[in-house]
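A student in our group prepared the protein record below, which I am reviewing. This is what I was given:
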Amino acid sequence: MNRIFSSLPTTVFEAMSQLARETGAVNLGQGFPDGAGPDDVRAKAAEAVVSGWNQYPPMMGLPELRQAVADHYAHHQGLDLSADEVMVTSGATEAIAGALFALIEPGDEVVLFEPMYDAYLPLVRRAGGVPRFVSLKPPHWRLTEEALTAAFSDKTRVVLFNNPLNPSAVVFPDEDLALLAQFCVKHDAIAVCDEVWEHVVFDGRRHRPLMAEPGMRERTVKIGSAGKIFSLTGWKVGFACAAPDILKVLAKAHQFLTFTTAPNLQAAVAYGLGKPDDYFTGMRADFERSRDRFSRGLMERGFTVLPSHGTYFLNVDIAPLGEVDDVDFCKRLVTERGVAAIPVSAFYAEGAVRTVARFCFAKTDATLDRALERLEGLVQRR
């Protein structure tokens, strides 16, 4: 068996979800919304599966979806992409895997920013890459020139960058993006940008893609997710956008991973990406309201809540509670209080922060209120 995958332990995400199922806990660990998703987008998918084409669609994706992605990013982010620079994938994780397999030769160094999505490291290693870590710290999780200088070298081939960043819920400011772009250009590195949370940003923020930075247009793979844009996490429709010379190699990796994606879902996403701006602003407002409701409830109960600028998540600093191990804290939280959270140390390979716990607030008011009721008195007791 392949040692990279056979040696992986059961993830803390599965462990916490299993505990939540066994104890009947309120599960704020898994990152999916309670809602059903937009009615009209789901209706388009149903209509397309009944009345549309259900055999193999083009490997690169339906032409109407590739054009819709290009138009969407032109409108919302000011990017000048053609449909020929867009490829449809079976979710963003497939796009990330394909990009890494296509771009990395054994021995190439890959810069990773931790905390990070748990798929990154095994995929980098399976591609033969050598990880170089930049460890970000709360409460602001900022990039620094010193940290980037230590991570980059003449062997750096790829930079894997998640913005907005799960689990820290930070939206990197313009100066951090400019700094990272300078390092990518200086070291002739390609940036694989996981931007699945690009529409889930709060407090009037607008997502700025790394591709828009000087020197990055021809050296960036921009990855998006319809599942996050439309709160339909089970659909697994992603997009990879890159200059033609890069995309043609990504396409060869994609061909031997999933080859294609359900055509009815592609048709529905193409429709959804053209929805009026009110949908996107309304979606953000709804999540922002849930964030504020849950954040306020936690603070009223004595928790130290860290800023959440985007994603479905917010974090609490458990150090003021006298806690020094977030895994132990989260296990006790689910068994003693009936609320499941995720220890942020699980998102680190090195230099782990061990005093932060992540909650998903993309839930109904009733679910959030039930969790808050169960957390009542915890801070004072400890």
Observations:
- The chain has a mean pLDDT of 96.
